[in-house]
Amino acid sequence: MDMYTVAEVSKKLRVRKSFVYELIYTKRLRALKLSERRIRIPSSALEDFIRNFSEEEKGKL
């Protein structure tokens, strides 16, 4: 299983790191908190987020 940092996820999604943190804290994006300052996002969690976001957008059309 691949794991990504917040910075890596922000680059993949082309958003700011603060937005990725917001997604994590609002539980829209699953993440593992390894320590106070270390957060990792499993590749499966990122794929789930993208899939769910795409489905939400389709529902709005």
From TrEMBL:
Amino-acid biosynthesis found in the keyword field: no
Superkingdom of the source species: Bacteria
Span of domain Helix-turn-helix: 3-52
GO MF term list: DNA binding
Keywords attached to this entry: DNA-binding
Signal peptide (UniProt feature, chain positions): none
NCBIfam families the UniProt entry points to: excise (TIGR01764)
Protein name listed in UniProt: DNA-binding protein, excisionase family
